[in-house]
Amino acid sequence: MLREAGAEVLGIVSIFTYGMKKGLERLAAANMRNVSLTTFDAIAQVAAEEAYIKPEDIDRLLAFRDNPSDESWMGGNK
């Protein structure tokens, strides 16, 4: 909408991004630069290092990130 109004949009800056595939594809299609201070991947890694989650849970979290509509990631290690 900003571009349609005549603005020169240089990109998007955020504090955090999930890095979800569909969103990244849309930004690329719009030729939009995206810069974030941190990512879901980085937070998951630090959470495992700090023992907030188990290291093996990272794969489940990234499975959610890659395809949130596939709920098989919820099974986890029982």
Quick overview:
With 78 residues, the protein is α+β, with helices and mostly antiparallel strands.
Descriptive account of the structure:
The chain is of the alpha+beta class. The chain is 37% helix and 15% strand. It contains 3 helices and 2 strands. It has helices spanning 21-29, 40-49, 57-66; strands at 12-17, 34-39. Strands 1-2 form a two-stranded parallel ribbon. Helix 1 (21-29) links the parallel strand 1 (12-17) and strand 2 (34-39). Helix 2 (40-49) runs antiparallel to helix 3. The longest helix has 10 residues, at 40-49. The termini are far apart. The mean pLDDT is 89.
Notable characteristics:
single chain; 78 residues; alpha+beta; two-stranded parallel sheet
* Overall 3D form: elongated
Contiguous uncertain segments of 5+ residues: none
Helix content: 25-40%
Largest sheet: 2 strands, parallel
Listing every helix as H and every strand as E from the N terminus to the C terminus, the arrangement reads EHEHH
> How many helix segments?
3
Report Rg. 16 Å
N-C termini distance = 47 Å
Number of strands: 2
Mean pLDDT: 89
Question: How much of the sequence is in beta strands?
Answer: 15-25%
Secondary structural class: alpha+beta
Task: Please outline the helices and strands.
Elements: E1 12-17, H1 21-29, E2 34-39, H2 40-49, H3 57-66
Helix pairs in contact: 2-3
